[in-house]
């Protein structure tokens, strides 16, 4: 019997986002009675996610979103999908925000949101990446057949299946009349219970992929809207303001999975986009293959109405949107042919960068001496609009590596090969085994399925004076910080953070055999040109993530007295102790995966309760297949943050 779960990297800042809108109606009034003034505020509603090495496309259809008022009352619907409902590719929303529209919401406090997600065959699609990790059950570049995808928690009848997902807010969303706010709802692609691939023991059997929205969807507070990185926005220009300071677009959605040529799904959502009057907006005419810097739209206004645009924008404090870069064309496909995705390969010898697109295909881009590299810093308008490097030297210096999330632009969408005009680096992601931590920095060692993509990168910590967000109480933080997976509110900050980090990353657990000792694993989103690392990448924070362990089985069953068990892994010869936490609020996340008669179910087990303890004691017996995600400790054990165990596999599956 061979069972495999899919998981990759746990990032609390797992992001990808989505702004949606609504408008409030007014109550009927008596003839001649003035209608009362509606007390409304504006909310940018964001859906985000994390990255993944194994998938190029995880498309879901969000049909509606409603907010739950504090103190009771009917939910307020704030988003209804256009028809046909567009697919949202969560893989492309790695730390980013996808704008649907800035919306009007009745003033008040809201404590939760309810998402309605399409649950019919085809409403969730999965596209395997061009170069997944070794041992992944999917075929590189393949689209998973819909009959091999089982969506958990559906309600309704055939053809009208939906999945209701309730998301409780970390703190109430307060909408104040005539003011702006924002809400980020995350889809955590790295969550082990989000997508579980169940490989049957019978040779030649089809892998069933169970998709579970219960747990991996959550709320994340946005402390500073100006720092939120937005995914490039597509739309159709509907007008230019009389003073030429802004354009209005109707939001367009690319068809997911993409078609050839790619087409757009129009919506009624409207967005106003300002030109950057201070730093200038880079304006690209894709059809004419020209570019210019504009501080208003006066010189291009006569050419814009009805044109398709792609816009890299940033938020201002008041919730307005400013264009950093704008691409325009008469054909939607021309602005869309601009590979977006994670960097798949970097070949400094040939100057070729390969970006994984949404079809699971690697798009090869030639970097020349004119190619510009931008690092998205929306809180700093000048830095956001200024390239950090130009030309091929950025590749040879190892400053551009596999795993970065980028949106590239090409000089000519019809050229062969495609020549890269620019790269927007939206996320500079470094991860891997942590080694050599010192008081000034540490090293990441990362191995991929394709060995030429491997890297060893040393990152300095950011300067102790560099602003670095806020703590759980809203107090400003400066300098390097770190936290254990799933506990961002317990981030280690301040003057002892580096010393504590050094102590926390020295543990190993030794399985022996071909597996050997496993060490601490982490992930950082690096920033460019910090005072501690001029013209280089530096780490503002690190998440100590669960180390990637092979599939295993229970060696000695669960001990309730010690809250632990031991396990063996494939390729190992030593049993290692796995410690679980049963403390409410920080308990190990445990999931039971059952496959019976070809149906896969995923059930969370709350081990902070006596019932949950009984459940795992009954099931975690010697020989039970188990997958553990945890951090090695100094005593040689592993502190488990997430555990998945398997039951109910019949011999015919």
Describe this structure in words.
An eight-stranded mixed beta sheet has the order 34-40-37-29-30-31-39-38, covered by helices on one side. It has a five-stranded mixed barrel with strand order 15-16-17-21-20. A five-stranded mixed barrel has the order 22-23-24-28-27. The protein starts with 39 loop residues before the first strand and ends in a 6-residue tail after the last strand. With 653 residues, it is mainly beta. It has five domains: 184 residues; 104 residues, Beta Barrel (OB fold (Dihydrolipoamide Acetyltransferase, E2P)); 88 residues, OB fold (Dihydrolipoamide Acetyltransferase, E2P), CATH 2.40.50; 116 residues, no CATH class; 96 residues.
Descriptors:
single chain, 653 residues, mainly beta, OB fold (Dihydrolipoamide Acetyltransferase, E2P), 8-stranded mixed sheet, 5-stranded mixed barrel, 6 helices, 47 strands, disordered N terminus
- Residue stretches low in confidence (pLDDT < 50, at least 5 long) are 1-38, 41-51
Helix count equals 6
Largest sheet: 8 strands, mixed
Distance between the termini: 10 Å
Secondary structure category: mainly beta
* Strand percentage: 35-45%
Question: Helix coverage percent of residues?
Answer: under 10%
Kindly state the number of beta strands.
Answer: 47
Q: What spatial form do the alpha-carbon principal axes imply? A: globular
> How would you write the strand order of the largest sheet?
34-40-37-29-30-31-39-38
Mean pLDDT: 84
Using the CA coordinates, give the radius of gyration: 25 Å
* Overall tally of structural domains: 5
């Amino acid at each position: 019997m061979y069972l495999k779960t899919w998981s990759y990297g746990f990032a609390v800042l797992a992001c990808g986002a989505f702004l949606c809108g609504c408008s409030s109606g007014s109550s009927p009034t008596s003839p001649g009675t003035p209608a009362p003034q509606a007390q409304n505020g504006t909310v940018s509603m964001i859906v985000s996610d994390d990255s993944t090495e194994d998938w190029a496309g995880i498309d879901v259809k969000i049909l509606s979103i409603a907010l739950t008022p504090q103190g009771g009352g009917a939910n307020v619907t704030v988003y209804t999908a256009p028809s046909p409902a567009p697919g949202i590719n969560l893989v492309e929303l790695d730390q980013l925000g996808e704008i649907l529209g800035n919306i009007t919401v009745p003033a008040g406090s809201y404590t939760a949101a309810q998402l309605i997600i399409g649950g019919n065959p085809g409403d969730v699609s999965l596209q395997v990446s061009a170069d997944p990790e070794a041992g992944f059950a999917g075929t590189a570049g393949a689209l998973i057949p819909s009959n091999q995808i089982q969506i958990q928690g559906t309600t309704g009848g055939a053809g009208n299946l939906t999945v209701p997902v309730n998301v409780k807010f970390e703190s109430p969303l307060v909408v104040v009349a005539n003011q702006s706010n924002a809400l980020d709802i995350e889809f955590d692609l790295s969550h082990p219970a989000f997508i579980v691939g169940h490989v049957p023991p019978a040779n030649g059997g089809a892998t069933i992929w169970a998709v579970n929205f219960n747990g991996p969807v959550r709320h994340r507070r946005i402390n500073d809207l100006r720092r939120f990185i937005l995914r490039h926005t597509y739309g159709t220009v509907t007008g230019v303001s009389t003073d030429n300071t802004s354009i209005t677009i109707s939001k367009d959605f690319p068809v997911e999975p993409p078609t050839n040529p790619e087409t757009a799904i129009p919506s009624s959502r409207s967005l106003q986009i300002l030109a950057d009057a201070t730093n200038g907006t880079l304006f690209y005419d894709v059809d004419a293959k020209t570019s210019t810097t504009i501080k208003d739209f006066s010189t291009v206004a006569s050419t814009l109405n009805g044109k398709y645009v792609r816009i890299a924008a940033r938020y201002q404090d008041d919730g307005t949107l400013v264009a950093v870069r704008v691409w325009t064309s008469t054909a939607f496909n021309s602005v869309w042919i601009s590979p977006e995705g994670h960097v798949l390969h970097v070949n400094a010898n040939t100057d070729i960068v390969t970006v994984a697109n949404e079809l699971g295909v690697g798009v090869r881009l030639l970097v020349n001496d004119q190619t510009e590299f931008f690092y998205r810093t929306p809180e700093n308008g000048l830095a956001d609009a200024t390239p950090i490097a130009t030309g091929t030297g950025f590749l040879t210096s190892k400053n551009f590596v596999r795993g970065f999330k980028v949106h590239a632009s090409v000089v000519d969408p019809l050229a062969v090969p495609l020549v890269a005009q620019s790269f927007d680096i939206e996320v500079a992601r470094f991860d891997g085994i942590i080694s050599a931590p010192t008081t000034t920095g540490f090293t990441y060692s990362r191995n991929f399925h394709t060995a030429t993509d491997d890297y060893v990168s040393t990152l300095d910590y950011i300067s102790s004076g560099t602003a670095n967000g806020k703590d759980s109480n809203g107090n400003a933080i400066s300098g390097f910080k770190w936290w254990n997976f799933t506990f961002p509110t317990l981030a280690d900050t301040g003057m002892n953070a580096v010393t504590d980090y050094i102590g926390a990353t020295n543990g190993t657990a030794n399985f022996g055999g071909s597996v050997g000792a496993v060490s601490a694993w982490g992930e950082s989103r690096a920033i460019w040109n910090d005072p501690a690392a001029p013209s280089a990448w530096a780490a503002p924070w690190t998440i100590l993530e669960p180390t990637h362990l092979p599939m295993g089985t229970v060696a000695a069953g669960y001990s309730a007295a010690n809250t632990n068990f031991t396990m063996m892994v494939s390729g190992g010869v030593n049993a290692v102790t796995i410690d679980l936490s049963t403390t409410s609020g920080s308990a190990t996340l445990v999931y039971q995966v059952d496959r019976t008669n070809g149906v896969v179910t995923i059930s969370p087990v709350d081990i902070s309760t006596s019932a949950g303890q009984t459940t795992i004691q009954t099931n975690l017996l010697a020989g039970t297949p188990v997958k553990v995600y945890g951090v090695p400790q100094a005593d040689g054990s592993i502190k488990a943050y997430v555990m998945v165990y398997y039951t109910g596999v019949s011999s015919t599956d």
